[in-house]
C-alpha cells in the first residue's frame, strides 16, 4: 500500500518536475531523493536565496525544489521499486493475464481503486496458499505421517494441484509443479519400503528417548539436583518436561525455577546430545565446569566423557578451555585409563602480545611437598629455598623448631620468639629457647647447606638485594613471594589478593601444577608489582642523594 497507494510517480512525473526526470527514473533514484530533500531542508536556511548545491540564486526555483520533497518520499519510492523488481524477477510464475493486470496496477497514475485492492488481495492469497503447500513438501519427514499404517494415502495427499490458483497458472509454475509431483509419485511407488523404514526409525527413537531420559535423570541425581525429566510426545511434538522430585506436576518453565548453575548444567548436557546428533569434526567447550561444586564437576565430566563412547563425547575431538586445574588433574592423573590415555593438556599463557603453549604431563601434577623437594634440590637462591621450606612446614601444619626459626627470620626478628608458648600479658610471646633455636637451624641446614640466621637476616634487611632478587626471579609465583618481603604500600586490592593468596596456604590444591614451570600468575599482576617496586627504587635513590 505504501508503494502503490499514490500511483507510480516514477513513470508519471508530477507537473513542474520534468527537469528532474533523469534522477527520478535512474537506478539510484532512492538515494537521490534522500540527498535532494535532506540537503535542501537542512541547509537552505543558512543563506537566504542561495542554493546549497550550486550556490546560485534559488529564489525563482525555490517552489520547484521544495516540490520534490512534497511529492516524493524515500520510503514510498523504495517500496514501489521493490514491488516492480519482484514482479520483474518472478513474473514468469504468474499467468499472462495476471502479469498484465499487475503491470497495469504498478503503473497507475492516480493510485489504487477498490477493484485494484481486491485483485491484489486475491493474488496475495493464492500465492500464500501455494507457498504453504511448498513449505509442507520442503519440511517433509517421517514425523509428518501421523498414520504410519497408510503412508501411500498420506503421500498422495501432498500432491500439488493449482487448478484453483488461476493467477499462478503459467508455463513456469506448471512445469515446476509437474517435477515435484513426479518426485512424489516415485516416492509413492516405494511406500511399502518407506513405511518399514519409518516404523524402524520410530522404534529406535523410542529406545533412544528412554535411554537419554534415564541418563539425564542419573546425571541429575549424581550431581545432587532434585529434578527429574520426562520426554513425551512424538516427532516434532516431542518435548523435554521437568519436575521437582518433591512435586508431582511438571514445571511451567526451567528459567522460572532453575538457578543459574542448574540451567548451565542442563545446557551442557543438551549441548552434548546436540553434538551427538550433528557429529561435528571439532567440539569446543569454553570453561564449562569451573563454576560448579566438586560433586557437580565430577557428574558433568562423567556425563560428557566417561560412559559408552556412543552415548557421550568420548573418542570425539574435543577442545576444552578452562581456568580450573581440577579437570586436568582428573583426566591426566586420577582416571586417565577411563579415557584410554587419549587426553592431552597444554597450558596457554598470554604475555606481551604473544601466546605460548606448554604441554602438561602427568609428572607435572605435583603435591606442594614434591614441588618443595624439587626446589630445595635445585641451584636457586637460598632465600627462595627458605620461602618454599617455610610454606612446606605451614602446609604440613608443623609448627616445630624449624617453622619457628623461619617465621622469625621472615619477620626480621633479631631475637626470635616462640609462638607455641602462651602469651605473656603486656610483653607478647616469650623468647625462643636457645636450644630449640639451634635445633631448628640445624634441621634447616639439612636442606639448605650453610644456612646462617644472622647472614640471611642481613639480606632480608637490605632492600636493594631483595629488589635484585625480585628482578632475577624467572616466574611470577616466586616474584610475588619476594615482593611481599619488600612490604611496599599496595593500594590495589586485586594485587593484595594475589600476593596474600600465594604467600599463605589457603586456596591451595592437594595437587597442583609446578609454579616454577607453569607461570600461573597473570601478567598484569607482575606488571603492577614492577611498577610499585620501581617507585620504591626511585625513592631509595632520592634518599641516597639527600644523604650525600
Description:
By secondary structure, the chain is mainly alpha-helical. Helices cover 53% and strands 7% of the residues. A hairpin with a 2-residue loop joins strand 5 and strand 6. Helix 2 (29-43) packs across helix 3, helix 9 (191-223) packs antiparallel against helix 12 (294-305) and helix 19 packs antiparallel against helix 20 (476-486). The N and C termini lie far apart (91 Å). The mean pLDDT is 83.
Topology:
Elements: H1 21-24, H2 29-43, H3 62-71, H4 74-90, H5 96-106, H6 114-138, H7 151-156, H8 171-188, H9 191-223, E1 227-232, E2 239-244, H10 254-257, H11 260-278, E3 283-286, H12 294-305, E4 318-321, H13 326-334, E5 345-351, E6 354-360, E7 365-367, H14 368-376, H15 382-395, H16 401-410, H17 434-445, H18 453-460, H19 463-472, H20 476-486, H21 493-503, E8 511-513, H22 523-547
Parallel strand pairs: 3-4
Antiparallel strand pairs: 1-2, 5-6, 7-8
Helix pairs in contact: 2-3, 2-4, 4-5, 9-12, 14-15, 15-16, 16-17, 19-20, 20-21, 20-22
Any key phrases for this structure?
single chain; 548 residues; mainly alpha; two-stranded antiparallel ribbon; two-stranded parallel ribbon; 22 helices; 7% strand; elongated
What's this entry about, in short?
With 548 residues, the protein is mainly alpha-helical. It contains 22 helices and eight strands. The protein has a two-stranded antiparallel ribbon with strand order 1-2.
Amino acid at each position: 500500500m505504501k508503494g502503490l497507494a499514490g500511483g507510480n510517480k516514477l513513470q508519471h512525473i508530477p507537473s513542474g518536475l520534468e527537469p528532474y526526470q533523469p534522477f527520478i527514473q535512474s537506478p539510484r533514484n532512492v538515494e537521490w531523493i534522500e540527498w535532494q530533500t535532506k540537503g535542501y531542508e537542512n541547509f537552505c536556511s543558512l543563506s537566504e536565496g542561495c542554493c546549497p548545491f550550486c550556490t546560485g540564486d534559488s529564489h525563482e526555483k525555490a517552489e520547484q525544489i521544495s516540490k520534490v520533497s512534497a511529492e516524493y518520499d524515500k520510503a514510498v519510492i523504495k517500496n514501489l521499486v521493490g514491488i516492480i523488481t519482484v514482479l520483474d524477477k518472478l513474473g514468469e510464475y504468474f499467468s499472462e493475464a495476471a502479469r498484465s493486470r499487475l503491470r497495469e496496477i504498478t503503473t497507475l497514475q492516480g493510485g489504487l481503486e477498490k477493484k485494484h485492492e481486491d485483485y491484489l488481495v486475491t493474488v496475495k492469497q493464492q500465492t500464500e496458499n501455494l507457498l504453504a503447500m511448498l513449505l509442507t513438501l520442503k519440511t517433509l519427514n517421517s514425523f509428518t505421517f501421523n498414520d504410519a499404517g497408510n503412508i501411500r494415502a498420506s503421500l498422495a495427499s501432498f500432491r500439488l494441484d493449482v487448478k484453483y490458483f488461476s493467477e499462478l497458472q503459467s508455463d513456469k509454475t506448471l512445469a515446476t509443479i509437474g517435477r515435484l509431483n513426479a518426485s512424489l509419485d516415485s516416492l509413492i511407488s516405494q511406500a511399502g519400503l518407506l513405511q518399514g523404514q519409518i516404523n524402524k526409525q520410530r522404534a529406535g527413537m523410542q529406545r533412544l528417548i528412554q535411554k537419554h531420559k534415564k541418563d539425564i535423570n542419573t546425571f541429575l541425581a549424581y550431581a545432587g539436583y532434585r529434578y527429574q525429566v520426562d520426554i513425551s510426545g512424538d516427532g516434532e511434538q516431542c518435548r523435554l518436561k521437568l519436575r521437582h522430585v518433591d512435586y508431582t506436576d511438571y514445571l511451567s518453565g526451567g528459567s522460572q525455577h532453575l538457578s543459574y548453575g542448574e540451567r548451565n548444567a542442563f545446557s551442557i548436557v543438551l549441548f552434548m546430545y546436540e553434538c551427538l546428533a550433528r557429529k561435528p569434526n571439532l567440539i569446543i567447550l569454553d570453561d564449562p565446569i569451573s563454576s560448579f561444586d566438586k560433586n557437580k564437576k565430577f557428574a558433568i565430566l562423567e556425563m560428557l566423557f566417561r560412559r559408552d563412547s556412543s552415548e557421550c563425547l568420548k573418542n570425539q575431538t574435543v577442545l576444552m578451555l578452562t581456568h580450573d586445574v581440577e579437570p586436568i588433574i582428573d583426566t591426566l592423573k586420577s582416571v586417565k585409563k577411563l579415557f584410554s590415555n587419549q587426553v592431552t593438556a597444554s597450558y596457554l599463557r598470554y604475555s606481551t602480545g604473544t601466546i605460548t603453549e606448554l604441554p602438561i604431563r602427568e609428572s607435572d601434577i605435583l603435591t606442594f611437598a614434591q614441588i618443595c623437594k624439587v626446589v630445595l634440590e635445585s641451584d636457586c637462591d637460598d632465600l627462595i629455598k627458605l620461602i618454599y621450606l617455610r610454606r612446606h612446614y605451614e602446609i604440613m601444619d608443623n609448627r616445630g623448631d624449624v617453622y619457628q626459626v623461619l617465621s622469625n627470620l621472615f619477620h626480621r626478628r633479631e631475637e626470635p620468639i616462640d609462638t607455641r608458648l602462651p602469651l605473656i600479658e603486656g610483653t607478647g610471646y616469650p623468647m625462643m629457647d636457645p636450644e630449640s633455636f639451634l635445633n631448628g637451624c640445624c634441621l634447616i641446614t639439612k636442606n639448605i647447606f650453610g644456612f646462617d640466621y644472622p647472614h640471611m637476616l642481613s639480606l632480608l634487611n637490605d632492600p636493594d638485594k631483595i629488589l635484585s632478587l625480585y628482578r632475577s626471579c624467572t616466574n611470577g609465583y616466586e616474584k610475588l613471594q619476594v615482593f611481599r618481603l619488600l612490604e611496599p604500600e599496595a593500594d590495589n586490592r586485586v594485587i593484595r589478593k594475589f600476593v596474600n593468596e600465594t604467600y599463605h596456604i589457603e586456596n591451595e590444591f592437594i595437587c597442583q601444577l609446578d609454579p616454577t614451570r607453569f607461570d600461573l600468575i597473570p601478567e598484569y599482576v607482575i606488571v603492577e608489582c614492577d611498577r610499585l617496586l620501581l617507585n620504591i627504587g626511585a625513592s631509595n635513590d632520592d634518599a641516597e642523594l639527600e644523604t650525600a
